Amino acid sequence: MNPNQTVEDESHPSITAASRRIQCLSLHLTPLPPSQPSPQLNMLTCAKAANKLEVDKVSLSTYMRGKNRDIQEKIIEFFESRPDLQTPVGVSMNEHRELCMRQLVALVREAKIKPFRYVVDDPAKYFAITEAIGSIDVSLGIKLGVQFSLWGGSVLNLGTEKHRDKYFDGIDNLDYPGCFAMTELHHGSNVQGLQTTATFDPVTDEFIIDTPNDGAIKWWIGNAAVHGKFATVFAKLILPTHDSKKVSDMGVHAFIVPIRDLNTLQTLPGIEIHDCGHKVGLNGVDNGALRFRSVRIPRDNLLNRFGDVSQDGKYTSSLPTINKRFAAMLGELVGGRVGLAYASVGFLKISVTIAVRYSLLRQQFGPPEQPEVSILDYQSQQHKLMPMLASSYAFHFATQYLVQKYSEMKKMHDEQLVADVHALSAGLKAYVTSYTAKSLSTCREACGGHGYAAVNRFGSLRNDHDIFQTFEGDNTVLMQQVAADLLRQYKDKFQGGTLSVTWNYLRESMNTYLSQPNPIIARWESADHLRDPKFQLDAFRYRTSRLLQSVAAWLRKHSKTLGTFGAWNRCLNHLLLLAESHTESVILAKFIEAVHNCPDARSRAALKLVCDLYALDHIWNDIGTYRNVDYVAPNKAKAIHKLTEYLCFQVRNIAGELVDGFDLPASVTRAPIAMQSEAYVQYTHHIGF
């Protein structure tokens, strides 16, 4: 297909669009007799695939899979060999909870895979394990994360050597299943507003944990309803004083609180546990609510890496203020966000793979007296799925980069790197999970009625993933954190400060990009220019810089009359657009870098095609912004649109190879509609035909 060719050029001159449609519809009423045996759902070769790229699927999948593929394959093989550990469709909540616990115990004690050992020492390997586990059962993946990343991670990251010595082995071998009790009924995102208290009693050398009101009940706590024996409880540390106030609030700290007897599993005195019940998804995770009534714990149960209390009630910390201690504590907990961003890409890959394979196999309508065509040959289906396929690749490389930076942070403990990873993880977690949530519904719709069958996975994937947009930080709140960090960088730039790694491009953008767009470049419309990574990245960064400059000006203006909070709220939608634009710039930069670094020429060419589609589709979707400031002239906008459609068509031609490049095990994409037609025929026989 020539990118300059129009839709009208492809139509037969003697048949209008309307008459063609009438002919197609009439075949439903009076079908033509088949001229040959009706084929099974064999994949058609696209009629216009003359320029199709040759893709080496082995080289592409090798480049994509990373260094931890071996342990992922070991996990998949273990669960495939154990039918008793596979989650059946329609399993009840109580059965699912017990099955998840059995699965986790089997993984650790029978398969001898110990994820906890990698949480700090090799995060990339830990996230690879969670990705494989999540493909078995998402509830199992979340339960594993609660045990090792949240409960276990809080002990490792917020505690000191005495806590590691006491709890490591029990967490590692599952003798000490635990919870992460941060969220309260009235406070989720606003962690500094938590109301649970931990009051120190110097007479007994203990902390007294209290739930002062119903709003302070710990809520949605994973592992609490059935299996948890311990909880890391986040509470305000209250110290007695000798002044008129009598107490001093030292801010939110973390405490280890036993909640059940280690042997009998009976709830301990002063602890009340309630079951949160059936949820939209993730019903293999036993979420519960916790109330504490004057529960006493030893002083040593304070996780004291960032602040400690002596026996006589004196508080010490290397960090001078409550805010700095709070920031340091949360900075050590970003691993959950990193894991969710990484896992969400796995959801997207699975759903895109199922939808693309089905769309290649499924045939509907076609020219008169000709065989029906693959539904992926329809432009509408291509526009649904091909940009999504491109985004899957883009997100893969971006989250790989995030895991790399997080691993460096855990080894180096550099303050600037911690801040950079905090903002990067917030942006990618929010952006990727929001995109994946929408895409899961689109993939279901793209598979028609067959996509609605539970066995084809879209329902469970969509329901289980839905909460990713909320836990480990609400996406809207996280995007505001990204915007706030951008504004700080903007301010620091003009005060002579240095920019952190992710924001380096702003050094140029706030000088060069904000000047008047070049009227000559604004009219360049050749395919070579539009497919130039420099043009694409400059366009993304120009948009971010314009948004940053404008929102800073609006905040300055509104703060004079509305105050800081009122001005922020007045500009909130603008701020969210800024954060989204910046995150897209980071994703594209990492995709371009990954294309450049690909060693195999054919795989590199395929990735370049996909990267171009990702970039130009985003530019076209926001073309109004570029036109408003004359960054793109009308003729160039039209050229971008035509080239985007052409690239979408070309990616369709290698869509099968591209989803194969994800190298997902067959058991992961086990939906019958994504397999050969015989598999779906077997499924229809299974349900009674």
From TrEMBL:
Alphabetical list of InterPro entries matching this protein: ACOX_C_alpha1, Acyl-CoA_Oxase/DH_mid-dom, Acyl-CoA_Oxase/DH_mid-dom_sf, Acyl-CoA_oxidase, Acyl-CoA_oxidase_C, AcylCo_DH-like_C, AcylCoA_DH/oxidase_NM_dom_sf
Protein name per UniProt: Acyl-coenzyme A oxidase
Family statement: Belongs to the acyl-CoA oxidase family.
Start and end residues of each Acyl-CoA oxidase C-terminal domain: 532-675
Primary location recorded for the protein, binned into one broad class: other
Organism: Gossypium darwinii
Keyword set, alphabetical order: FAD, Fatty acid metabolism, Flavoprotein, Lipid metabolism, Oxidoreductase, Peroxisome, Transit peptide
Cofactor(s) needed by this chain: FAD
